[in-house]
C-alpha cells in the first residue's frame, strides 16, 4: 500500500469515527467515485465548500499542471456517493462552466484562501464540481 493510500485510509477512518470531523483538516467530504479504467470504487477525502443545497468540490491538486486522478475518474463516471458529516447521499457530479464556475471558485477562495494562489501556479482552469443533494 502506498504512503498516500495509508494517509487517506487514516483520514477516512477518523472521518467515520468522528461524525465527519478530522483533526487538523478543514471541512471534509468523502467522495466515492468509480475508477475509469478499473471500475473499482475509490474513496477520496476532499475539502469542500457548502453552497446552499449543494456542495462544491475543487479539483485544484494544489495548483499542479495536471488534474487529480479523482477528477479524471469523475469525468468518465459522474455517478458518485458523497459523505458529509453523518449525511450520505448519491448524486451525479456536475462540472461547472463559465460564470457559474467563476462564481463558485470565488466562493471557494473565501472558504480556503490558498485556492487563489493555486490558480496562479497552473495554466489549466481548475475545475469546480457541483454535488447536488437529492430533492426531497
TrEMBL record:
Pfam families: F420H2_quin_red
Reaction equation(s) it catalyzes: oxidized coenzyme F420-(gamma-L-Glu)(n) + a quinol + H(+) = reduced coenzyme F420-(gamma-L-Glu)(n) + a quinone
InterPro entries (UniProt xref): F420H2_quin_Rdtase, Split_barrel_FMN-bd
GO cellular component terms, A-Z: plasma membrane
Segments crossing the lipid bilayer: none
Family matches, as Gene3D superfamilies: Electron Transport, Fmn-binding Protein, Chain A
GO MF entry, a single one: coenzyme F420 binding
PANTHER family: F420H(2)-DEPENDENT QUINONE REDUCTASE RV1261C
Similarity comment: Belongs to the F420H(2)-dependent quinone reductase family.
NCBIfam families in UniProt: hi_GC_TIGR00026
Record protein name field: Nitroreductase
Organism per entry: Dictyobacter arantiisoli
